[in-house]
Design goal:
- By secondary structure, the chain is α+β, with helices and mostly antiparallel strands.
- It has two helices and two strands, in the order ββαα.
- It has one domain.
- The longest helix is centred in the C-terminal third of the chain and has 12 residues.
- The N and C termini lie close together (about 10 Å).
């Protein structure tokens, strides 16, 4: 089984930022995006699709 996290250092909901990365996961920083902006970000969406397709 493989799993991933996609996280932003500017997320105002998930704090602290260092609580996001998980051991064994593909931990992917997505830049400085607010929490809800992760949902509509083209780069983040492409990264999620690429991970799911791998």
């Amino acid at each position: 089984m493989k799993y991933a996290t996609f996280w932003s250092g500017c997320d105002e909901i998930v704090n602290p930022d260092d609580s996001v990365p998980l051991t064994g996961a593909a931990n992917t920083p997505v830049g400085c995006l607010k929490h809800n902006d992760l949902l509509g970000d083209d780069g983040t969406s492409a990264a999620v699709r690429a991970f799911l397709a791998s």
